[in-house]
Structures are given as C-alpha cells and as structure tokens.
Specification:
This protein is of the alpha/beta class. Helix content is about 50%, strand content about 15%. The protein contains 16 helices and ten strands. Helix 2 runs antiparallel to helix 6. It is globular, with a radius of gyration of 20 Å. About 40% of the residues are buried.
Length: about 375
C-alpha cells in the first residue's frame, strides 16, 4: 500500500492558492526544488531511490473519488463561472513529472510546470521523503513499530494532560508535511479529536479534516508572494516586492473575501520581512487583514511590531489575532499563552513536534520555488 492514498492528503493552502494562480497566472511556469537544510545529514543514505520514485508516482496517479468531490464542492471555497473547469484541470489530471536523483549523500528532487498545477506537490513530496527516512532511522535505532507507537502515545499523554490543564490553549494540527508517517498522523489526530475536541480547533490535512469533522485550517504560503515577486523582478517592475505584496493581497481579497466573509484573510508578513509588510500596510488593508501568522523570528518582537502598527490605524490589540506557528512545543506555547493574556487574540499552528515526536530525529526539509519563467 502506498504512503498516500488520497489527493486530499495535503495541506489546506494547496486548495486555495492553486485557484488564485489558475485565475491570474495560468501560463506562468515555475520550477520547484527540494532542499535538505540539515546539510550535515546524509539523507540519501536513508532513502531507497526506487522506492521514493514509486511512492511519488503513486501519488501523481491519484484522482478525486466521488465522495471527495462532494466534500470539496460542499466547502463553498470556489466561486465564479469557471469553477468546474478548474476542478477538472486540477484534481482530475496528473501533476507535472517529479524528478528524483541521488547526488552523493543528498537528494535532488524537482518539478517544473504551470504554477497552479505544480504547487501542490510540496506536502506529498516532503511527507513521503520524511516517512521513508524516518523508517530507516527507526530501524537503525532499533525501534520497531510497537516502540514507535509507545513513544508517540507517551508524548501524547503529556500533550493531552497539559492541554486539559489549560483549557483555553487551543491549536490547529499543522503536522502533515513533516509527520513521522501518514499512519501516525492519523492515529495522533484521532486521539486528539477524541480527547481534546474543543481545543483542537482545526486541521490542515484536508483528508483528516473531512474524516474527523473538523474545520480546515491554513493560510497563504510564502511561495505565493515569492513567485509573484520573482515575476515582477524579471519584468523589471519598479519596487517589485511592494508591488507583489499588494497584488497578491488584492487577488486574494478578490477571490476569497466574499466567500468566507474575510475569515481566510490571514497575513503571512515575513516573506520579505515583517518590517517591509507593515511599512506598506494601509489602514484599509489592516482593517481587513486582522489575522497574522508568526512563522519566524522572535515571536514577542513580532507581536509588538504588529500591534504597534495596528494601533496607529486605530485598531485595538484585542481586535488582532496572531497565530504562532514557528517550531512550537508545549513550553513555547505555554510561554506565549502567558505573554498574550489580555493583549491580543492568539492561536497556534502545531506541526512537526506534534506529529513527529516518536523518538526519531527530525530534519528541516523544504520544497520551494527556485525559478520562474516569464514570457511577458
């Protein structure tokens, strides 16, 4: 059985971003590449290249089943006259071919194609690589399946006990990309859904949000702004970062503001630096985009900058929500809980340390756009 068995086993923003790219940049070609940020880790020694290729190809061959189509249609995400055309193009055709090579002790993985069609490979590729690596790391450490499950549930015991002690500590499960395994993400999510259903307020994995009846959670990714900025740089646009930032926000508002009454309008301001985002933020935009994702840097400094800028527009701190997502664990979340009390609305997007904490080392693996081909 393949690691991934559903096209919905992907992050929520891989439903929302492709539609915007399809509407506005249908012919824009983008190349994506895999990077192992832990360059000292010889990742290729822990992956069978043929198995990796087979798993990726099995994912490329997946299509939506009827009940999955019904679920997507029932979400009410997409509007416009061409929705059926997009859904057919995106969900019922194969993604561009994904190339895999071994270069010394590292992996070279890449794909290239229309931006809207190539972008959804990120989570499947990263989760497949992570699972194959984790299996071999576990074997090397002498950990069998029972040991992994025992370690994972021991960690969940601690997580759940702490959550129950702090019932206002709410989070979204963001662990699809770097989970220990697909099966473990399912098992961990099932336990959290059963034991702390009021505190797990959303799930980024579309398949499991549907399975367990939870809200989908997620926002825009950095790549959305990066690709549009790269296009403007190639075209020689003055102030390309500022132009790209405003264009991206305009397109997102046009596509989604009326769908969910603005609830999807969550800014990710650190793409070109939080200072850049805030310096070019208008009062009108700030009033609409009151949710911010803190994804890097000092969270307290980030909060101070965001709240100060919003107060300059007459927006009180209590009307601003900041979702912390950067490398979260229980101690960090408890510290931010104390820091946020009475200051701003807080949220947590909990990823790797929630779904890959079973006693096997984790690694920083990313999948990013590397080239943008602009014809005009």
């Amino acid at each position: 059985m393949s690691i991934i068995g559903s096209r919905l086993n992907n992050d929520f923003y891989k439903l929302t971003m492709p539609y915007v790219a399809w509407l506005y940049f249908q012919d824009l070609q983008v190349r994506y590449e895999f990077t192992n940020r832990n360059t000292d880790f010889p990742i290729a020694r822990y992956v069978n290249i043929d198995e990796l290729r087979d798993e990726i190809e099995a994912w490329r061959e997946l299509r939506l089943r009827k009940f999955e189509q019904d679920y997507i249609g029932g979400l009410g995400i997409y509007t416009g006259d061409r929705v059926d055309e997009f859904l057919r193009d995106f969900f019922m055709t194969a993604p561009p071919e994904i190339m895999v090579e071994r270069v010394g002790d590292q992996l070279k993985i890449w794909t290239e194609g229309p931006w809207w069609r190539a972008m959804d490979a990120e989570t499947p590729v990263l989760s497949i690589v992570t699972e194959l690596v984790s299996r071999n790391l576990a074997q090397e450490a002498g950990l069998g399946p029972a040991d992994i499950r025992r370690n994972g549930h021991r960690h969940l015991d601690e997580v759940i006990a702490t959550l129950k002690a702090y019932p206002d500590l709410q989070f979204a499960q963001f662990g699809a990309r770097r989970r220990y395994s697909n099966a473990w993400e399912y098992e961990a999510t099932a336990r959290l859904a059963y034991e702390v259903p009021e505190q797990m307020v959303g799930i980024s994995n579309i398949e499991y949000a549907r399975e367990f009846g939870f809200n989908l959670s997620g926002t825009i990714a950095h790549e959305y702004f990066m690709v549009v900025a790269a296009r403007h740089i190639a075209l020689g646009t003055p102030d390309p970062l500022v132009v790209a930032q405003n264009e991206c926000l305009d397109m997102w508002e046009e596509t989604y503001q009326e769908v969910w009454d603005g609830r999807i309008l969550c800014a990710i301001p650190d793409t070109f630096g939080t200072d850049c985002y805030l310096a070019n933020l208008t009062a009108e935009r700030a009033a609409l985009w009151r949710v911010y994702k803190q994804d890097s840097g000092d969270p307290k400094l980030f909060v101070d900058k965001v709240l100060t800028r919003n107060q300059a527009f007459g927006i009180e701190p209590g009307a601003v929500r900041i979702n912390h997502t950067d490398g979260l664990n229980l101690p960090a979340m408890l510290q931010l809980r104390e820091f946020s009390q009475g200051r701003y609305q807080r949220g947590f997007g909990w990823g790797t340390k929630l779904t890959n904490n079973v006693g096997v080392a984790t690694h920083s693996l990313v999948w990013k756009p590397s080239h943008v081909l602009v014809n005009g």
